[in-house]
Amino acid sequence: MKNFFKPITLKWWQVGVVKVALISFGILVGIVWSSFFEAWIPTLLALLIVSWAYLVAIWFRNWKD
Hints:
By secondary structure, the protein is mainly α. The chain has one domain. It is built from 3 helices and no strands. The longest helix has 24 residues, at about 40-65. Keywords: Membrane, Transmembrane, Transmembrane helix.
């Protein structure tokens, strides 16, 4: 069986394509299942803030070096 979780290197424009795909998917899910996610808005918002803070901390740590 193949290992799908190997490290790969992407170019900047390939990362952009991945981001556009994920944003499009998120918008689609939000449109189709908006009533399901209404109860989860505070949890998802907290998850967004924590993950964003983590990414910013990593970015500043790497930027400082």
